Amino acid sequence: MTNRRSFIRKAGLGALATGILPGLNFGIKAQAETQPGPGFPLIVSTWNHGLAANEAAWKALSEGLSVLDAVEYGVRVSEADPGVSSVGYGGYPDAEGNVTLDACIMGPDGRAGSVTYLKEIMHAVSVARLVMEKTPHVILSGDGAQKFAVQQGFTKTNLLTDGMRHEWEQWKASGARYAPHGNWENHDTIGLLAMDAMGDLAGACTTSGMAFKHPGRVGDSPIIGAGLFVDNEIGAASATGEGEAILKTLGSFLVVENMRHGMGPQEACEAALRRLMEKVKVHDQMQIGYIALHKSGVVGAYSLRPGFQYAVHSPDGPSLLDAPYILEW
Ligand code: ASP
User: Fold this and answer.
1) Is residue 251 lining ligand 1, measured as CB closer than 6 Å?
2) With a 6 A CB cut-off, is 222 part of the ligand 1 pocket?
3) What are the φ/ψ torsions at residue 18 (nearest 5 degrees)?
4) Can you give the C-alpha Rg of the chain in angstroms?
5) CA-CA distance, 173 to 176, in Å (whole number)?
6) From the CB of 221, is ligand 1 less than 6 Å away?
7) Tens-digit pLDDT profile for residues 187-225
8) Which atom of ligand 1 lies closest to the CA of 217?
9) What is the pLDDT of residues 55-90, one digit of tens each?
10) DSSP state, 309?
């Protein structure tokens, strides 16, 4: 097993050999890539609620838990927080008033698990992990996912808070209809990527999806390669924003592939967004954000439009950063 010191040295040489030095790529409005300092662990996640999730993930790593535990325990914080209106308990419901969750997890050994359209179970990411560990499958969906969760000892719980019920009732009363482009109140999925002290990578992604979405709608977040991808040799990536566009370009996989071909993490995120702009019709309310964690211990992010923030936790402590972006609103 590579020890930490030799890993850092090897990763540094790799970065030099492939020309991916942090801060070399400046796109429109780009800032230098986040440099975590000389050490790992390193955690990066989407949006400002990522700060609390990162803290839990950091604590898990500090206590000697695995990198997979860290990403799971990290995003569970957002799932349990009714103040986070886009994940787990307290998330926006679908058009029929049901909160339905999408989540996935992927580890350093390439294993992955996922649940889609899961109702009444708060910790979708933990069910996804058990799909990975206890079944030969990758994805369980809907009633089958819920049945599996209950068999595994999860308790059914009402995920619709009074506040969200009120918002949904108002939405219905306003005569609003399901419209993917108009239901963009909810855009704060948590994707969290972690690297442990040995340089091993894992990621998790969990969401209640788009506000008032069509019943049965599944976004990018639980789809391996779209909402999340981890390749322990190369790096990891996660996505947030309009899932339909991310799905059509397999965004997170593309970010990791871009890193495989020599790009730094920020450049890889930007290139994936530029590909999306070529392949998908970009409407004026569309927002997409990517985060990436390169195997060399460098973090990057990019978004289609301003406003996307990402949280980093390194040995230097926590920080919340504005991602560079391509288009103005
Ligand atoms: N990507 C999520 C979805 O489309 C939403 C989000 O990230 O805000 O379900």
Assistant:
1) no
2) no
3) -100, 5
4) 19
5) 8
6) yes
7) 689 999 999 999 999 999 999 999 999 999 999 999 999
8) 9
9) 999 999 999 999 999 999 999 999 999 999 899 999
10) E
Q: How many Cβ atoms are within 10 Å of 284's Cβ, its own excluded?
A: 8
Confidence of residue 181 (pLDDT cuts 50, 70, 90): low
In a domain, 329, yes or no: no
| pLDDT classification of 174: cutoffs 50, 70, 90 | confident
CATH code assigned at 25 = 3.60.20.30
Q: Give a yes or no: residue 328 inside a domain.
A: no
Show the domain range for 87.
Answer: 4-322
The answer as to whether 327 is a domain residue is no
Report the percentage of the chain scoring pLDDT > 90.
81
Non-local CB neighbours of 312 within 8 Å, separated by 6+ positions: 34, 36, 42, 43, 44, 54, 299, 318, 319, 320, 321
Cβ-proximal residues to 166 (8 Å cutoff; 6+ apart), any chain:
none
- Residues 273-308 have pLDDT tens digits of 999 999 999 999 899 999 999 999 999 999 999 999
What is the model's pLDDT at position 66?
A: 97
Is residue 279 within 8 A of residue 2, CB to CB? The reply is: no
Tokens standing for 78?
């957002």
Which two tokens mark 328? 């103005």
DSSP designation for 85? T
Mutate to test the pocket of ligand 1, among 45, 75, 220, 276 (most ligand atoms within 8 A of CB): 220
69 is a domain residue: yes
Total of domains in the chain: 1
